[in-house]
From TrEMBL:
Pfam families: Phage_int_SAM_1, Phage_integrase. Gene3D superfamilies: 1.10.150.130, Intergrase catalytic core. This is Tyrosine recombinase XerD. Residues 118-299 form the Tyr recombinase domain. PANTHER family: PHAGE INTEGRASE-RELATED (PTHR30349), TYROSINE RECOMBINASE XERC (PTHR30349:SF81). The lineage of its organism: Bacteria, Pseudomonadati, Candidatus Omnitrophota, Candidatus Danuiimicrobium. The active site is at residues 158, 182, 251, 254, 277, 286. Keywords: Cell cycle, Cell division, Chromosome partition, Cytoplasm, DNA integration, DNA recombination, DNA-binding. Residues 11-97 form the Core-binding (CB) domain. GO terms for molecular function: DNA binding; tyrosine-based site-specific recombinase activity. It comes from Candidatus Danuiimicrobium aquiferis. Site-specific tyrosine recombinase, which acts by catalyzing the cutting and rejoining of the recombining DNA molecules. The XerC-XerD complex is essential to convert dimers of the bacterial chromosome into monomers to permit their segregation at cell division. It also contributes to the segregational stability of plasmids. One of its GO terms (biological process) is cell division. It comes from the Bacteria.
Length: 305
């Protein structure tokens, strides 16, 4: 595969990318979605190199690739997207090296950016209380919305789990609910006093009785209903009314749930079980949050910090 000196570098990169995609398609038998993802990531890589006036793939060094990854991180791209980009680049360079198109594979010693995960945003206890207090429980929708906020914070449920929660899975007498998580895995989560009070109020309300024949706890049909998007919008509205400047999503309450438990000494394995994480390494990111918070408090209050 000759690369002409006078060719446009973007065109040269596109030829190489096309050959790589053909290779992984034929030799590796990858699915169409995987091929599309690789091609998309490598087009981004080629555009970045072209913008940096790199004329030949052989001119690339590890610094160029690292700068691209940091560029993506600064653009607030998800850690999984950045890691996937690096995987695509590494496979691309491995292919070029095997084909004799480059003399050195500069990516061979590069690790995936496991430590580049963005630490999850979370709310302080005061911010959580301000948010939960916003819904007006003199109104029917306020009663329901207060119950939703209390449940999200008290249980750490994902918004999809909340929307899919069944009435039969809520046991107020015992003070727990059964949650169906990813992969159909069930877990039992305690409710807590405040959440239990909010749920009891909701179950006595007209809005709950109106949909009592439906299996879903928040009982709204798809046509009118409680979707994940509706919960996102509702939380954003209440956050604005509470004067909270942070960007808040339902997952922010899940992060706050985990962070506050660990700050108060909860065992990491227990938090893993409550969150429904299959791998404890997923839960461990919250230890970075609490460690950073401890350092911040130490720096703020210690006289010799």
């Amino acid at each position: 595969m000759a690369i002409g000196v006078k060719e446009n570098p973007r065109t040269r990169f596109e030829v190489l990318i096309r050959d790589f995609i053909t290779y992984v398609s034929v030799e590796k038998g990858l699915a169409a979605n995987s091929l599309f993802a690789y091609e998309s990531d490598l087009q981004k890589y080629a555009a970045y190199l072209t913008a940096k006036k790199i004329m030949n793939i052989a001119e690339v060094n590890r610094t160029h690739i690292t700068q691209l990854l940091f560029h993506e991180k600064n653009r607030k791209q998800a850690a999984t997207s950045i890691a996937r980009l690096l995987v695509a680049i590494k496979l691309f360079h491995r292919f070029l090296y095997a084909e004799g198109l480059i003399k050195i594979d500069v990516t061979s010693l590069m690790d995936s950016p496991k430590l580049w995960k963005n630490l999850p945003d979370f709310l302080s206890l005061q911010e959580v209380e301000k948010l939960i207090d916003v819904p007006d429980i003199r109104q029917i929708t306020g009663i329901r919305d207060r119950a939703i906020l209390e449940l999200l914070y008290a249980t750490g449920m994902r918004v999809s789990e909340l929307v899919g929660l069944k009435t039969l899975d809520v046991n107020l007498e015992a003070g727990f609910l059964k949650c169906l998580g990813k992969g159909g895995k069930e877990r039992i989560i305690p409710l807590g006093r405040k959440a239990k009070e909010a749920v009891e109020r909701y179950m006595r309300s007209d809005v709950f009785r109106r949909y009592s024949g439906e299996p879903l706890f928040f009982g709204l049909k798809r046509a009118t209903g409680l979707t994940r998007q509706a919960v996102w919008q509702m939380i954003g509205k209440y956050a604005k009314q509470a004067g909270i400047q942070k960007h808040i999503t339902p997952h922010t309450l899940r992060h706050s749930f985990a962070t506050h438990l660990l700050e108060r000494g909860a065992d990491l394995r227990i938090v893993q079980e409550l969150l429904g994480h299959a791998d404890i390494s997923t839960t461990q990111i919250y230890t970075h949050v609490t460690r950073d918070r401890l350092k911040s408090i130490h720096h703020q209050y210690h006289p010799r910090a």
